[in-house]
Amino acid sequence: MKRRFIIALIILLTGAGALFAFLYYSNVYLPEKELDEAEEEMDKIIEEIRPEWDPEQDGEASGDGTGKPGNNDPDSDDKTNDPDGQNGSGDKQGSDDGNNPRKGSSRTGKDPLAKARNMNAGVVGWIRVPGTNIDYPIAQAQDNEYYLDHNVKGGYSKIGCPFLDYRCEGDFSGFNSIVYGHHINRRRMFTDISRFKNASFFDEHPSAWLTLEDGAHRVDFLAYLNVERDSFVYEVVLITPNDRQEYIDKVWESAVNVTKTESLQPSKLKEDRELRLLVLSTCTYEFNNARGVLIGVIR
After folding, report:
1. At 294, which CATH number?
2. DSSP state, residue 104
3. CA 161 → CA 82, 155, 177, 180, 181, distances in Å?
4. For the chain, which residues score pLDDT lower than 50?
């Protein structure tokens, strides 16, 4: 009897171990392997199509110019991937020391996105945020679904590609241009946007670079928000001055962090008739359907 019990226990434990191994392989190992492979493919593509002029390499970007995280990591985030289906440290926030161009500029006079557009005519820009892992092309499709699971080359990808809302102007000339990206573990894609919820990190990383057809534009960050997926920040039909002023007021009222730079305060922004905002959005996990949104002014 005792021997039978031991044999049955061994069989039970062996079966449980095999089941655990199968579940781990199916639910953890394989998904992570697919993410790693997608990231490796994206990295190779990026090296092929990186803009011909990089303001950071020329020492013109705020921050350390490496595009890599700094030693001070107050709010590192390592969540599992969740798509945004709704679709650099600096001395002073938004400082303009004379080395940073206020308008798009290119050292070569050529379209810095030419290589990317030769690969995919749907590429509309390139976003790099110094001091983070965000350094990606931006594509645009006829909907807000395609690039959730396709890379910039058009192939299937678990990590997708950052994309401009199909409702927005492809040249970023509208009042607000909304760019979405996945929140994926190990700080891939747009995961680092959520780090701007930390006040110190927000203050120490005041700007980004948006490369368009006419060159690189500095983006000075205004605010970080945690919002619902149907928040006002995703509105794009803002035609009248009153509509735009109301939008700016709502950003300040809803923000977790806002800039202290005087030239970027609401009263100043409302005076700018050519104001263009960049809205970077990703999923976060503070509540159901939460989104982390980083908003800046395109120079």
Report:
1. 2.40.260.10
2. -
3. 13, 10, 16, 9, 7
4. 23-25, 58-103
